[in-house]
Write a structure and sequence with these properties.
With 463 residues, this protein is an alpha/beta fold. The chain is 32% helix and 17% strand. A 5-stranded parallel β-sheet has the order 6-3-2-10-23. Strands 12-22-13-14-18 form a 5-stranded parallel β-sheet, covered by helices on one side. It has a 4-stranded mixed β-sheet with strand order 1-9-8-7, with no helix packed on it.
């Protein structure tokens, strides 16, 4: 028996991307939406996140377009005084509950079905009861799971674990009842840095931490990625200036470091990873206190007292706790048109700000009819993993911004949305700092983007 559910759109995935797309869509079109998710409620991977995680970027850049996450406040105490607030996992989950109830299901624009799997053919199935649901064939399918991250809490470690070895996901750090003599943190990205900073702030000594870092990472200085147009656009202008002046791609990143835009943990090592999460200067100072760093590639197996890696092995304490932070948080499938023949596949448009891209796609879907025109306005931008792919992401993101920004209504909408990092609100006061930032960006953007395109192999636009 199949239960029919009337809807114009079926959004598969109720994490940050699905919520941002749906919010913008219902705000600008008179449509009925069904959202399904395998979890019991909305919020995606945040429902399984480790308890001490915060957004790594300002709260204002995250969530849905209609409803500001947090109060747009600056921090007034602590090591990030003056920077914009960053929401905790509890605040993020409560925020999405509020958006679902007050913006979506309450007004009757959205029907949410939790604990359900989409099985194709306009059909989804309850994981709890097995009941099957079907939406009309005219209903547009929206795939909001295309780049859904894997996280340690729900992903086994990508290496063998022998009997007697103790391997835990980062989530379990906060519930340990006994302290080992050594913590071995596995991973090069944001999750691993969170684990190390948390351990250090809890009083664990740096000598008790071993950091298995297969690749050294470049990270963005959080202080220059802020919801202030003079700061953000100034950073973009400085980036373009550095690109224009650099002799090589490596030289470019070193110049970004010198300009206070990029961080690396060890100045003697040239990083090869450039997923570029944001990091604060105080966190960097903590990370640099950990001197036991293992750079022997990815782990193959963990046994009592020993780790075997791709390029060797190392001894660890017999009672060591190995902290799994090595899930594939970012995904790199080949980009496809967002508006395809069978589904709308939501992807980053300005990478680094997934909620803005998803909301933008929702707005364009609500205000345009022709799919070819929508794809022209909103080409997807692949996420970055290396220095070359970061340069490519920057070039393609700039081109996408120029494309959708040339449409007066989209520009007006984007300038009114806090999710947009590059927005200049209509009521924003003029300032000398903003004038200088815009002038620097205008001076250096064309040549800087040309150099980045050259280093990353991006072809010139065809028109």
């Amino acid at each position: 028996m199949v239960r029919m559910v009337d809807a114009d759109y079926l959004v598969v995935g109720a994490g940050a991307v699905g919520m941002a797309f749906t919010d913008a869509l219902i705000d600008h079109a008179d449509v009925r939406v069904v959202m399904v998710d395998r979890r019991a409620t909305v919020g995606g991977h945040w429902r399984d996140a480790y308890p001490f995680v915060r957004l790594h970027q300002a709260s204002a850049f995250y969530g849905v377009a209609s409803t500001l996450l947090g109060g747009g406040r600056r921090q007034t105490e602590g090591p990030e005084t003056g920077l914009h607030e960053r929401a905790t996992v509890a605040e993020i989950c409560a925020y999405y509950d509020h958006v679902l109830a007050d913006r979506m299901t309450g007004p009757g624009k959205v029907d949410f079905f939790g604990e359900c799997d989409y099985v194709g053919e306009h059909t989804f199935v309850s994981r709890t009861t097995g009941e099957r649901f079907e939406v009309p064939q005219r209903c547009r399918i929206v795939d909001a799971r295309h780049l859904a991250p894997d996280i340690p809490a729900t992903t086994p470690p990508p290496f063998d674990v022998a009997d007697g070895a103790r391997v835990i996901p980062i989530n379990d750090l906060a519930t340990l009842t006994e302290s080992p003599s050594q913590y071995v943190v596995v991973g090069s990205g944001k999750t691993a840095t969170d684990a190390i900073v948390w351990l250090l702030t809890q009083g664990v000594g740096p000598d008790a931490i071993c950091w298995v870092r297969p690749r050294d990472p470049w990270m963005l200085n959080r202080a220059v990625v802020q919801p202030d147009p003079a700061i953000f656009l100034g950073m973009v202008g400085d980036t373009m200036q550095a690109a224009g002046a650099a002799a090589t791609l490596e030289d470019f990143f070193v110049r970004l470091e010198g300009a206070g835009i990029m961080f690396r943990v060890d100045r003697s090592v040239m990083p090869t990873m450039a997923k570029t999460p944001t990091l604060a200067a105080w966190e960097l100072d903590h990370l640099r206190t950990v001197e036991h760093v293992v750079r022997l590639g990815h782990i193959r197996s963990v046994g009592p007292g020993r780790i075997t890696l791709a390029h060797g092995s190392v001894s660890i304490a017999k009672d060591a706790v190995v902290v799994h932070c090595a899930a594939a948080g970012l995904k790199y499938p080949p980009p496809v048109d967002i508006w395809g023949p069978s589904a709308i596949t939501v992807q980053p448009i300005r990478a680094g700000f997934p909620c803005f891209g998803a909301a933008l796609a929702g707005y364009v879907e609500a205000t345009r009819d022709d799919c070819a025109d929508k794809n022209r306005l909103c080409p997807p931008t692949p996420l970055s993993d290396t220095m070359a792919s970061w340069a490519r992401m920057t070039v393609l993101g700039a081109r996408a911004t120029a494309s959708f920004g040339a449409e007066p209504d989209i520009k007006a909408w984007a300038d009114g949305v806090p999710l947009n990092p590059a927005r200049i609100p209509p009521d924003h006061p003029t300032s000398a700092a903003l004038d200088v930032a815009l002038a620097r960006l205008q001076t250096h953007a064309e040549y800087g983007l040309a150099r980045l395109a050259e280093w990353s192999g991006v072809a010139r636009p065809t028109s």
